[in-house]
Amino acid sequence: MRKIIHIDMDCFYAAVEMRDHHKYRDQPIAVGFDGPRSVLCTCNYLARQFGVRSAMPVIQAKKLCPQLCVVPVRMEVYKAVSKQLMEIFKRYTLQIEPLSLDEAYLDVTDSNMCNGSATLIAQHIRQAIFDELQLTASAGVAPNKFLAKIASDEQKPNGQFVLPPEQVAQFIQQLPLKKIPGIGPKTAAKLAKQGLLSCADVQQFSADKLHVIMGNASYTLIERSFGRDTRPVIVDRQRKSVAAETTLAQDIVSYQQCASVLTDLLATLYRRLGKISKSKVIKQGIKLKFADFNQTTVEMSVTAINDALFFDLLKKALTRANHRKVRLIGIMLGIQPYVNTLKEQQLNLPLK
Ligand code: TTP
Ligand code: MG
User: When you count CB atoms within 10 A of the terminal residue's CB, does the N or C end of the chain come out lower?
Assistant: First the structure.
């Protein structure tokens, strides 16, 4: 049986801002660009009491909480804190899979730290984060990644939840399906229509019927519903994509307008691609978000990057507009991480 810890910082960007600016400590704050059309990155727990949430448009958040203070994003600071965080993790194990700036899985199955107790390791890590970074984190300890991630949310903020293997069967029963990563509001609604709300419901449901509803994703859902997840903690996950996107200052309609934005985005994309220049491009894609907040993506497999293709994909995506204006344009490259060929590895061998 494995021992996995999932660590997730509490209201990460907002917590960093409260740490660095004492005046924000006792007021509802959110982090984001304070424009009429922007959405929030996150908010502190005081703001959450008003119903404010991540990814909420600023306008809506201010309706819910008129005194909300929207603090500008300081991405460089969050990145630096994230590096410090990873350094703390490394003292306990090298089996680390970062998921984002503020979140990681740690596999401590073979760790001898804290007498091999995953619970104690998680406690020590959270204490070190508090002492050294003046920030709080929550942790979940469980036999696999899926359960550890669910567990870290159970006692948020500044809490820890341990799910021992013998309690998994009981715990998973009443877990709402919408808490399973990958089950978004649309899928959850589809499942609810069939009377499927909790993992227990899925456990008792016909696998064939579920396949009709969800296709191949049904296999994973059944696994998760029984608390099973065999995915390993992947150290050094390589980038699989590069992207650039922009929310427009004003919604636009014409292909010409979109194409001009696309040209700017291409420059950003090339800059980002340049940093991982040895990667092979295998896919290109366009994303459009329309004025009603629905979005569409068009992708195509390629063997090398092709600028003109982006404009063709844009045209195709625009055929789905149905008279809706465009509010956001994004472009994406799927990449195959660079792998040393055997020859290069040999060349890189240290001289004896
Ligand atoms: P999360 O861990 O999802 O959220 P959080 O740390 O703010 O709050 P919680 O206590 O619930 O964990 O995301 C980490 C950071 O990523 C968050 O501080 C800001 C950023 N983020 C966005 O920029 N946009 C988003 O939609 C989300 C969800 C997060
Ligand atoms: Mg977090």
Answer: C
